[in-house]
Amino acid sequence: MSGPLSTGTTTARMPASFIGSQRVVPTMPLYASIVVVIVGLAATAVAVPPAEPAGRADGSRAEAAPAALIDPEVFRPVLVPEGSLISRGIRAGESAAYYRVLDHARRVDPETLRRAAARFLAARQKASGRAAVRRLPVEEFPVFVDLYENVRRPEVYLGKPVTLRGHLRKLVEMPAGENPYGIQTLYEAWLFTSDSQQHPTVLVMTSVPPELLEEVRRLKAANRPVLVNGVSGSGYFFKMYGYPAADAYRFAPLVLGGRLEWRPPSPGDLDRSLPVVLAAGMVVFGLPIGWFVWRNRSEDRRRRMQRASETPESFAWESGTEEMQVVENRESDEVVEET
Question: What is the pTM of this model?
Answer without folding.
Answer: 0.62
